Amino acid sequence: MSQTDTHRAIDTVWRSESARLIAGLTRMLRDVGLAEELAQDALVTALEQWPRSGVPENPGAWLMTTAKHRAIDRLRRSKLLERKHAQLVHELEHEQEHAHAAAEAALDDPFGDDLLRLIFVACHPLLSMEARVALTLRLLGGLSTEEIARAFLIPEPTIAQRIVRAKRSLAKAEVAYEVPRGDELHERLSAVLGVIYLIFNEGYSATTGDDWMRPALCDDALRLGRVLTGLMPREAEVHGLLALMEIQASRSAARVDAQGEPILLLEQDRNLWDHLRIRRGLAALEQAGRLGGAEGPYALQAAIAACHARASTSEQTDWNGIAGLYATLAEVAPSPIVELNRAVAVGMAAGAAAGLALADGLVDEPSLQKYHLLQAVRGDLLERLGRRGEAREAFEQAAALTMNRRERELMLGRARLCAGDPPPA
């Protein structure tokens, strides 16, 4: 394996293992900031050693073992080695010596999931809602500050400051590493749901890099969503979120071709959709309705996804129904992105001109100035209206704004078609 291949493998491992690594270290060290620092140290060690020795058979376990050794060394060297630090050293050494017993003890945990526990810690009420979501995406999603900033449509320095301040606040308050109970649990639920869905979205449509999707992030979000439904079975929006993710994830195999190139929704082979996931999603949506949450934000989005899932062909899609659901969603959870999605639905239900009028009304919206999908939607609607020159410009703007290589190539390809240029050989 070449050094480049090894570095790519390390990046892949980090994407899939960093959240579990940080969560496990936080459980042991009771310090989110220190856990992330030690995880990063382990990654640096991997970057130094794996190009020479090769990627280990179980890279996640290798990173955890390395991080634990670093934790023990760090605590022993510290001039501030107090009794609690000495106790941590003892616990770390004991856990390494009795790994099997520690695993069995974990089975007795009523929640049994370090990742979920860490989400609730990161969503502590002493933090602002924005800080909770940003910190959790950083710690559990393995996302960079740049990727988080794009998810929020706000400047990167703002996200970086939020994360640093959030970790300092948690350390200063000595927040317990546990899942809250009672009323406090429900107070944090909204932020937790938002975090899980943003993690899923980053996996479903990667903001940066060479891949259209990051399936590991989708899998993590789905797993957390399923755990959460077990933890809070009477919360309608928990089921609504799970329904939304299951139905969206059902399309994964049809969203890329053999070369990893994107395939847009209306062009997908619906025979490749995962009907087991669709059934799971529809069942979760029904449960949300039974619990009185049919018009919750996630349940409404799941209902929109269900309209696509129930259509055996793109031509059979109930676009009027989808446009109506987006109108309701705009009342329940108004946002520029909801309005943009409504423009797409209206464009399909009432014609491209009607959709373009809505999309053009968002052009001056500050939060969408660097949002590539606004221009992508405009390009699609303009192309359908035969305004190919304007469509080409919109697709080129979308290509310039996206940081995902696959998406950039898709937008540039559509721009070339609008200009009448043949596709590259």
In terms of topology, how is this protein built?
Blueprint: H1 3-29, H2 32-53, H3 59-77, H4 83-97, H5 99-107, H6 114-122, H7 129-140, H8 145-152, H9 156-173, H10 182-187, H11 189-204, E1 208-209, H12 215-231, H13 236-249, H14 275-290, H15 297-310, H16 319-332, H17 336-350, H18 352-360, H19 372-384, H20 388-401, E2 403-404, H21 405-418
Parallel strand pairs: 1-2
How is the biggest beta sheet arranged? 2 strands, parallel
In N-to-C order, the SSE pattern is HHHHHHHHHHHEHHHHHHHHHEH
Number of DSSP helical runs: 21
Mean pLDDT: 86
> So what's the overall shape?
globular
Radius of gyration: 23 Å
Could you give the order of strands across the largest sheet?
1-2
The strand count comes to: 2
Tell me what portion of residues adopts beta-strand conformation: under 5%
What structural class do helix, strand and pairing data support? mainly alpha
Instruction: Note the gap between the termini.
Output: 30 Å
Low-confidence stretches are 99-112
Helix amount, in percent? Answer: over 70%
Structure description:
The chain has 425 residues and is an all-alpha fold. The chain is 71% helix and 1% strand. It contains 21 helices and 2 strands. A two-stranded parallel sheet has the order 1-2. The longest helix has 27 residues, at 3-29. The chain starts with a helix and ends in a 7-residue tail after the last helix.
Any descriptors?
single chain; 425 residues; mainly alpha; two-stranded parallel sheet; 21 helices; globular
Compact summary:
This protein is an all-alpha fold and 425 residues long.
